[in-house]
């Protein structure tokens, strides 16, 4: 079995709308953290949502393989139960559903079995401690009335409790102050290990100062235009995206 | 969001639609006339004043036009309705052993007997037109709590009965209150003496078995000074191709410093017209809550009302309505403020799916001279499908400018983004949808006694959520 998340020549469009991805190729080996950077409108967030199975997009061609198996025909929930997780850029408010109860249902769906309450509570406690957070967040309704920062932090908490094999974080850093950013990074770093791969979608290098990626990819116009190490992120920060755009045009 | 099995099925799998092989011992001729009213009174062996009252009410009923402001009543043909069906010779059995076996089994199937032993302070069971069983815990009886059929109330507590009967809702109030006043049969007579706190709920259970029957329960509840009581009404019926009719009148008086709560879990079959008048008079520093759950019926028109007539009185009305294809829930509430420093709220949550229609209809009235009234109205509608429908009719008559009145109304659709978000955490689409619905009604559902919250959850096919931390 190939232990990796592979995006193979992926072309996709909004259902009844414009084409966003124009042949994305990307391999995220399990155990690694990769960053995807790129200017606004490059298709970074779309890529994250498509991997997670957002039905508002349509695949034109190409494939997404998780550990060698195509997940294109799977609904979002099936992908999640197989070990995929998307931390949303804009987490959705669900009034009347408590954060903890929802997480318990999600964990139950994933395990396909009743969740042991002590074990569940232990996972929650551990995640809260890492994220330097108070228990009161558990009884609040899911994202309902949460501040922007609370929503992002909550996404990481969900990820820590659900323990996916591959986590995609869609601009989790945007809108966070430096302290919150450090806490979120701490959560992601706590998950790093041979059984976890992560894709960090970000606009800025800032987050990468706290989560050192194994590789950096630059996305332009719905394609990966350049890949490299951390130095690529540093160069983007210093010089902007123009030079990569030229590269993309040249290729 | 149309391919959503769980939400689609809410209300479809009606498990109470079975028919009993019970023939009434006596049934009135079809339709409504003076003879029918006289026969009902005769069968109840009533005092002359009551027959007189009934006949007067019949005239009032006949003089009032069919209301056209609410649901469509054109399909309700009074000539096709039986106005009285007597299920057994014995009314108000004190022991289930004295209830005919077939009828007793029905209440077993409905889970009433089990609940009686576990969580209720008393049970009344109405089958077609009469209360076949009434029992209240002995210790409450010793404290002077009266919980009997309305007929027994008239027979054995006539003075108390006359003091309250038709004082809260006179026959002139509306056409169907007049109808009920003419042909009433069954319902409870409840009196909770001063200072007595009834810890567990009293429950009345209404079952209509005979096809094309009209059921006209009449209930009087008096909660005396400083007393505390919770009354629950549950309703089911078999599913027939012909229509049935339920038109109750509930009169409640909450005396000084008392607290009362009236919960309805109405789950009639979808061939039932349900036109009910419910009203509470709330006195000084007293509190009354209506918790109104309308899940079943073809058409429901029901607006529980509280009249806050003395200082410090408060009342909350919580309403849940669920309308599927072929159903119209026209529900809401009325708060009438006729004294200073009174307050209350109406919270209404409605869900429409398929071609179902939910309407919120509410009235807030503050009389001039009622100072510093505080009231808040919140009505939220959730639409599941494209063809689902909701309307809002909020009436406000605020005659005193010291009143603080809040009003908020929202209409939302089952949201694809919410569904995808929950799905992305591993919940299948149908569970995600049901969870959103469950969350939507949570602010009202959490006020239900646990057993009923469970029942409601079961109705939306969701597991009861545990609590953590």
Structural write-up:
The complex is a heterodimer of chains A (251) and B (469). In chain A, α6 runs parallel beside α7 (178-191). In chain A, a hairpin with a 2-residue loop joins β11 (215-220) and β12 (223-228). Chain A is globular. The relative contact order of chain A is 0.18. Chain A is α/β, with parallel strands linked by helices and 251 residues long. Chain A has helices at 44-52, 76-81, 99-111, 117-130, 136-139, 148-162, 178-191, 230-239, 242-250; strands spanning 4-14, 19-29, 33-37, 57-66, 69-70, 84-87, 94-98, 141-142, 166-170, 197-201, 215-220, 223-228. By secondary structure, chain B is an alpha/beta fold. Chain B contains twelve helices and 24 strands. Chain B has helices at 5-9, 34-43, 48-63, 101-109, 112-118, 138-142, 150-156, 158-164, 175-183, 416-423, 429-445, 450-459; strands at 26-27, 85-86, 122-127, 130-136, 146-149, 188-192, 202-207, 214-215, 218-223, 228-236, 244-246, 249-254, 259-266, 272-282, 287-294, 299-302, 305-308, 314-323, 328-337, 343-352, 357-366, 374-383, 389-398, 404-413. Chain B is globular. The relative contact order of chain B is 0.11. Residues 1-6 and 461-469 of chain B have low confidence and may be disordered. Chain A binds chain B through residues 52-56, 75-77, 79-81, 85-86, 88, 91-98, 100-107, 109-110, 117, 120-121, 124, 135, 138-139, 141-142, 158, 162, and chain B through 415-418, 420-429, 431-432, 435-436, 438-443, 463, 465-469.
């Amino acid at each position: 079995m190939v232990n990796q998340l592979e995006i193979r020549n992926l072309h996709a469009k909004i259902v009844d709308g414009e084409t966003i991805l124009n042949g994305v190729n990307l391999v995220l080996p399990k155990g690694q953290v990769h960053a995807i950077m790129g200017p606004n409108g490059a298709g970074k967030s779309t890529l994250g949502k498509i991997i997670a199975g957002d039905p508002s997009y349509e695949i034109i061609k190409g494939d997404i393989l998780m550990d060698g198996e195509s997940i294109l025909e799977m609904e979002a929930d099936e992908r999640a139960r197989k070990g995929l997780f998307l931390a949303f850029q804009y987490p959705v408010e669900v009034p009347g559903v408590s954060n903890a109860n929802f997480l318990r249902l999600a964990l139950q769906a994933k395990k396909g079995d009743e969740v042991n309450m002590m074990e569940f509570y232990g996972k929650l406690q551990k995640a809260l401690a890492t994220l330097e957070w108070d228990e009161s967040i558990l009884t609040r309704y899911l994202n309902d009335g949460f501040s922007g920062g609370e929503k992002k932090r909550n996404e990481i908490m969900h990820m820590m409790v659900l323990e996916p094999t591959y986590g995609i974080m869609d601009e989790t850093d945007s809108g966070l102050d430096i302290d919150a950013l450090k806490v979120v990074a701490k959560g992601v770093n706590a998950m790093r290990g041979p059984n976890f791969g992560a894709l960090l979608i970000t606009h800025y290098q800032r987050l990468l100062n706290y989560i050192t990626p194994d590789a950096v990819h630059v996305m332009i116009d719905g394609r990966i235009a350049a890949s490299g190490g951390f130095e690529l992120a540093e160069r983007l920060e210093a010089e902007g995206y123009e030079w990569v755009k030229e590269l993309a045009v040249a290729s | 969001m149309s391919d959503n099995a769980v939400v689609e099925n809410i209300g479809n799998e009606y498990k109470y639609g079975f028919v009993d092989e019970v023939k009434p011992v006596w049934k009135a001729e079809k339709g409504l006339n003076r003879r029918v009213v006289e026969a009902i009174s005769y069968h109840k062996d009533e005092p002359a004043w009551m027959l007189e009252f009934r006949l007067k009410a019949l005239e009032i009923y006949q003089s009032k036009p069919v209301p056209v402001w609410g649901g469509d009543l054109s399909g309700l043909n009074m000539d096709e309705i039986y106005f009285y069906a007597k299920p057994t010779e014995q009314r108000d059995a004190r022991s289930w052993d004295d209830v005919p076996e077939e009828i007793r089994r029905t209440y077993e199937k409905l889970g009433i007997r089990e609940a009686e032993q576990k969580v209720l302070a008393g049970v009344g069971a109405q089958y077609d037109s009469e209360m076949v069983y009434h029992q209240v815990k002995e210790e409450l009886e010793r404290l002077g709590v009266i919980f009997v059929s309305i007929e027994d109330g008239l027979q054995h507590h006539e003075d108390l009965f006359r003091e309250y009967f038709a004082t809260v809702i006179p026959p002139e109030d509306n056409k169907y209150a007049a109808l009920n006043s003419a042909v009433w049969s069954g319902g409870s007579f409840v009196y909770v003496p001063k200072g007595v706190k009834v810890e567990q709920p009293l429950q009345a259970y209404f079952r209509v078995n005979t096809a094309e029957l009209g059921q006209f329960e009449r209930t009087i509840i008096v909660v005396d000074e400083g007393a505390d009581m919770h009354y629950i009404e549950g309703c089911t019926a078999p599913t027939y191709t012909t229509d049935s009719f339920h038109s109750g009148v509930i009169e409640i008086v909450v005396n000084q410093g008392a607290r009362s709560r009236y919960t309805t879990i109405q789950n009639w079959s979808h061939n039932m017209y349900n036109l009910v008048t419910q009203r509470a008079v709330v006195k000084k520093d007293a509190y009354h809550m209506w918790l109104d759950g309308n899940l079943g019926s073809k058409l429901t028109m029901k607006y529980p009302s509280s009249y806050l007539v003395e200082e410090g009185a408060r009342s909350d009305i919580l309403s849940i309505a669920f309308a599927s294809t072929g159903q119209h829930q026209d529900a809401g509430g009325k708060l009438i403020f006729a004294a200073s420093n009174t307050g209350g709220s109406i919270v209404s949550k409605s869900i429409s799916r398929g071609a179902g229609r939910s309407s919120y209809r509410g009235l807030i009235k503050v009389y001039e001279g009622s100072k510093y009234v505080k009231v808040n109205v919140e009505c939220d509608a959730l639409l599941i499908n494209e063809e689902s429908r909701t309307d809002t009719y909020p009436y406000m008559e605020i005659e005193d400018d010291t009143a603080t009145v809040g009003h908020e109304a929202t209409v939302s659709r089952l949201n694809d983004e919410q569904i995808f978000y929950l799905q992305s955490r591993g919940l299948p689409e149908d569970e995600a949808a049901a969870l959103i619905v469950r969350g939507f009604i949570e602010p009202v559902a959490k006020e239900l006694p646990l057993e009923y919250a469970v029942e409601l959850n079961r109705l939306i096919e969701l597991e009861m959520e545990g609590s953590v931390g």
